[in-house]
Amino acid sequence: MSQKNSDGKRSARERLQEQRQREEAKGRRRRTLIAVAAVVAVLGAGAGIAVIVAKTGGGKKKETAGPLVAPQGATGKDSVTIPAGKPAAKATLVVYEDFRCPACAQFENGFRDTVNQLEQKGELKAEYHIVTLIDNNLGGSGSLNAANAAACAQDAGKFSAYHDLLYKNQPPETDDAFGKKARLLELAGQVPGLDTPAFRTCVDDGTHDSWVKKSHEAFGKTSYRATPTVLLNGKSIYADQANPLTPDKLRQMVAEAAKG
Questions:
Q1: Which of 2, 142, 145, 184 could be stapled to 176 by a disulfide with Cβ–Cβ 3.0 to 4.6 Å?
Q2: What's the pLDDT score for residue 166?
């Protein structure tokens, strides 16, 4: 029985690694398209290429997203970071993730309890950066709408609970179910005190859409190219490929990071 459980955990870790590699490959293909389009545009290829560049960068959506409104309590440069846990914690987990990203769900669903326990003990705090890679790669608006809804939950002091709920109910990557705001509101009903008129207006109006796009743009300026990107005190938790991450290993890493 023990061997079976071990094989299951190893298989899950392998699937997570494979999914992250696929997301990274998608990111590379998209950046290549942007680079080629930009070069051709500079060489005077005409309006056709300009349309490709505009669509890749968001086009009209960016112009009509409305004013940039950061969620309550957002921190960091340009206020694109949503904090969780106790500020005094010495270990910091920085997470770049997309609510439509399957590998992000595997990380969150596999390590949620461990992260929450460490946060409650004051040993770990987290900083979430929300991106929209899947919308950009596959089309749709699920990444954007879910991110906006999560920011609305942050306004209500319910970010962590709603964030976790979205990952527990994540649809298949190719199913843009989170693009339907009715689904996001339906899920909010499972978080006590979240489904209020203010929250519904925030979700329906896309109050934080421009902030989500700013957060995604900030991710694009980093050296990271896939989700989830998870750093513990600045170092990737996936760096040691020969010794895959487990809840026990994460606890040990947090304890070591807290020492300095």
A1: 142
A2: 98
244 preceded by cis ω (within 30°)?
A: no
Counting every residue written for the chain, the total comes to: 260
Residues 6+ apart with CB under 8 A from 92: 124, 125, 126, 127, 232, 233, 257
Residue bearing the bigger pLDDT, 26 or 223: 223
Helix and strand tally (H, E) in the chain?
A: 11, 5
C-alpha distance from residue 142 to each of 146, 160, 173, 182, 190 (Å): 6, 19, 10, 12, 19
Of all residues in the chain, what percent are helix, strand and coil, respectively (each to 5)? Answer: 60, 10, 30
User: How much is the CA Rg of the chain, to the nearest whole Å?
Assistant: 19
* Nearest of 74, 55, 95, 85 to residue 207 by alpha carbon: 74
Using a 10 angstrom Cβ sphere, with 0-12 exposed, 13-18 middle and 19 or more buried, the burial of residue 88 is exposed
Percent over 90 (pLDDT), the chain: 70
The first and second tokens of residue 73, run together, are 């309590």
Alpha-carbon gap, residue 161 to 153, rounded angstroms:
9
DSSP state, residue 140: S
Q: What are phi and psi of 128, to 5 degrees?
A: -100, 130
